[in-house]
Structures are given as structure tokens and as C-alpha cells.
Design a protein that fits this description.
Elements lengths: L12 E4 L16 H7 L4 E3 L8 H19 L4 E6 L2 H11 L6 E7 L7 H6 L4 H18 L6 H6 L3 H10 L7 E7 L11 H11 L10 H4 L3 E8 L28 E2 L2 H14 L3
Length: 279
């Protein structure tokens, strides 16, 4: 049974996408999630940052998006919900761009706060190959609308060494509530689109549980809420986390606290909790 949640938070929600995609009206990065949150009373805005720009560059774009959100809503602060790399960009916005007083909370969904051991090994591949692949990707991202794509730099920003330095320079700000969530596929066939990266992460990182890109240790930050998975045989992949398929994960009802049958209900519950905290 689908539970009804009250998502009419005190502050509006700014949703910040991850790497490789952009916010578009016709093909929303977040699938059904914004619609469901609005139906439950939430006021939703989007980050509209570049897909493959650096944390610093996207941080400035997010600053503009946050200012627009506050101007249109009339609110003094906003709650940020960010997926993947969008979470580090949101933390940079709070810690390095002077916008902390306008941010009530930062909720991160599979954000590589601690970097990825898998990416450490990938970045040891011959640099000419990595640079060439990144350049081709930059051309594509420019066509798709990015103003300053830097794919190679984005990959460097996913390493453990980079994030260790980033965390030192961007500590949490008092007065902002930080929470993080991890997700896991149940096997390589949980999501056919993520099978190869899932196997790569398992081989290179040595951990059996990941969402196809990141393990729990990669994403822990602030109040870590645990590892969530699906009620069926699929589990939850990095793509499932933002409702890429626009459908329920399974028809089974949750048996355990961290079981999810429909990702939209996870977001509705999370936002309703922010409301319950007075945010």
C-alpha cells in the first residue's frame, strides 16, 4: 500500500543532479520524483548546472540557481537534495561560496564524499587514452548544452585523494543538517545497464555491495542513514536512484526498514522527515 506523506516543508527543495546529465523539462533527470513530491506539497526547484563541469564551475551555477529559488519562493533558505557528484557541488556551494546561511539541509544520494577506490585504479590507465576519451565526451556534452565541460577533471574529482583534500577545504557548516544515503544492487543482473560497472567495482574495490558505481564507504557523510535496497530481486542501481525507468522497482511490499518498492516513496518519506524537523 502506498503511504501518503506530507512534504510541505518550511523551505523549498532544490534538486541537484549528478554527472553526465542535465535538467530538462521533457526528459527530467529525476523521473516521476518531482511530480510526486509536488503532489505531496513540496515546492521544487532544480540546480540546472552543467553535466560534466568541475565542482567549482558548477558550484557557481548552483549559486545562481539557489538565488533564483529563494527569489521566486520568497524563502530565506532551501533544502538541497543532491544525487551523486551533485552532492559535492552542493557542499562546495555551502562551504566555499558564502551561501551557507541560505541552506537549511543537504541530503545526498550516493554522493562520492570519500572518493572511489575504483576510480583511483581507473585513473592509472594510460593518460593519453583517458584524455582522448574525455575530449570526445566534452564535445558531446557541449552539443548537449554544457558551457564548460571538463570530463577528465570530473573523473579526477572522484578519486580518494582529491576528495580527501576537498573535505579538508570544505568542512560542514554549523546550522546545516547533513545526511547521506547509500544504495545497493543485489547482483550484476539487477540492472543490465549497470552490469559491467558493477563487476568492475566489485573487482577493483573488493566490496560485494554497490549501486554499480559506489559502495557505502564512498558515500558516508553527516548523518549516514544506511544502505537501501529493493524489495524484489533487482536491488537499486545508481540509475534507479533517480527513477530512470519511471516505474516501481517491484510489486512486493517492504519487509524491512531499508527496503524500497518504489523510489518515489523513498523521496517522499525523506522530504516529510525534513518537514518533521521544521525544515
Amino acid at each position: 500500500m502506498k503511504e501518503k506523506y506530507d512534504c510541505s516543508t518550511k523551505y523549498p527543495i532544490l534538486m541537484v543532479h549528478g554527472m553526465g546529465f542535465r535538467d530538462r523539462k521533457l526528459l527530467c533527470y529525476w523521473g516521476r520524483i518531482p511530480k510526486i513530491l509536488r503532489q505531496c506539497g513540496a515546492e521544487i526547484y532544480f540546480g540546472n548546472q552543467d553535466a560534466n563541469a568541475s565542482i567549482e564551475y558548477n558550484g557557481v551555477l548552483l549559486k545562481n540557481a539557489l538565488k533564483k529559488c529563494l527569489a521566486e519562493s520568497g524563502a530565506e533558505r532551501a533544502n538541497i537534495i543532491a544525487h551523486s557528484k551533485g552532492g559535492t557541488e552542493s557542499r562546495f556551494l555551502a562551504s566555499s561560496l558564502g551561501m551557507s546561511r541560505h541552506i537549511a539541509s543537504i541530503t545526498t544520494i550516493s554522493t562520492p564524499h570519500n572518493g572511489s577506490a575504483t576510480m583511483d585504479k581507473i585513473m592509472k590507465l594510460p593518460k593519453p587514452i583517458m584524455k582522448a576519451g574525455s575530449l570526445i565526451t566534452d564535445v558531446f556534452m557541449t552539443i548537449m548544452g554544457d558551457s564548460k565541460p571538463e570530463t577528465y577533471r570530473c573523473l579526477e574529482e572522484l578519486t580518494t585523494s582529491y576528495m580527501a583534500e576537498f573535505n579538508r577545504k570544505n568542512p560542514d557548516i554549523e546550522g546545516i543538517y547533513y545526511q547521506s544515503f547509500a544504495f545497493a544492487m543485489k547482483n550484476p543482473f539487477s540492472d543490465i545497464l549497470m552490469s559491467v560497472p558493477y563487476i568492475a567495482v566489485k573487482f577493483m574495490d573488493g566490496r560485494s555491495r554497490s549501486d554499480g558505481f559506489l559502495t557505502a564507504k564512498d558515500v558516508v557523510w553527516g548523518n549516514f542513514r544506511g544502505v537501501y535496497t529493493g524489495t524484489g530481486r533487482r536491488g537499486i542501481s545508481h540509475l534507479d536512484e533517480v527513477d530512470m525507468r519511471r516505474m516501481r522497482l517491484s510489486g512486493n511490499e517492504p519487509l524491512y526498514r531499508n527496503d524500497i518498492s518504489d523510489i518515489t516513496q523513498f523521496y517522499a518519506k525523506t522530504v516529510s522527515e525534513l518537514k518533521g524537523m521544521g525544515l
